[in-house]
Amino acid sequence: MSERLEDIAARMMASGKGILAADESTGTIKKRFDTIGAESTADTRRDYREMLFRADAMKDYISGVILYDETLRQSAKDGTPLVELIKTAGAVPGIKVDAGSKPLAGFPGESITEGLDGLRERLNEYYELGARFAKWRGVINISDVLPTRGAVRQNAQALARYAALCQEAGIVPIVEPEIMMDGEPGDHSIDRCYEVTEFVLNTVFDELYDARVSLEGMVLKPNMVIDGKNARKASREEVAEKTVRVLKSTVPSAVAGIAFLSGGQSDEEATAHLSLMNELHNPSWPLTFSYGRALQAAALKAWGGKAENVAAGQAAFAHRARMNSLAATGQWKLDLEKAA
Ligand code: 13P
């Protein structure tokens, strides 16, 4: 008998752990590798991910890993499937199933995420390959005039259809409506972000309800409420307070948990914000991280594409993972960064 969705979600939200988003598409990982001057080939992508999944830090701090299709099918250099490395570390393998965002017809400057056609069959295959949760990201652009009601509704409907298909397949959906902090023009205020986040989350939960998605068997992956990259910087306390406030006013308490994206925040900001939320604001759900850039940037740089740097890459990853683990229980402190 397959594992209950609620039990998988509970493992993903294990206390003091969070999710490693390592699901960069081939195009995105190439951009990351370009920053360290490394070539992006199937083997170098495998080597980089093998370095992360074999790190000791996985056992202590990581509850799940989001993979890209290629990685889910790859094996380590010694022939062990990468999925097995993740399971051995006690983490749940997951899979990005959306096919990326494309311009939305009739809505200049807005996009829609594709990938619903054939999704039922793909999910069944991913289940066989070992995935027990999935991710779909809706992209919401923000400015004085965006997003439009129509674009938000269409992205929410796609998220809801995806989530229902996941649950049918015995896979926990991570529902990710991302309001872009690092998009253009990026001059929006934190209060504009609050207003848009509130509208988007209300619309998403409305559609999830109509699609009969079980809230106990899903995880929400939201943005934090934060200024655009080109705007004034709100204090860390303000980000934490406004983020928990908007979540409490829109997310039903039956939702299994919330795991944030980092979205272009610096490593330390992403950690500090999460820690303050857990320390000061008594959230109604487990609140943890599902970071890509904010968990990997230091490790990628320390590795630099060279086999002799694997231990250094793993040490950098361990530090960041430990800081975020502390944040997931509200216990991170700035001097722990300095000490390292
Ligand atoms: P970032 O944490 O780098 O935003 O990535 C998380 C993710 O999975 C975005 O879809």
Automatic annotation (TrEMBL):
Pathway the protein acts in: Carbohydrate degradation; glycolysis; D-glyceraldehyde 3-phosphate and glycerone phosphate from D-glucose: step 4/4
Catalytic reaction list: beta-D-fructose 1,6-bisphosphate = D-glyceraldehyde 3-phosphate + dihydroxyacetone phosphate
Molecular function per GO: fructose-bisphosphate aldolase activity
EC number: 4.1.2.13
Stored InterPro entries: Aldolase_TIM, FBA_I
Pfam annotation, one family: Glycolytic
GO biological process: glycolytic process
Record keywords, A-Z: Glycolysis, Lyase
Broad EC category: lyase
Family statement drawn from the similarity comment of this UniProt entry: Belongs to the class I fructose-bisphosphate aldolase family.
Protein name stated in the entry: Probable fructose-bisphosphate aldolase class 1
UniProt source species: Nitratireductor aestuarii
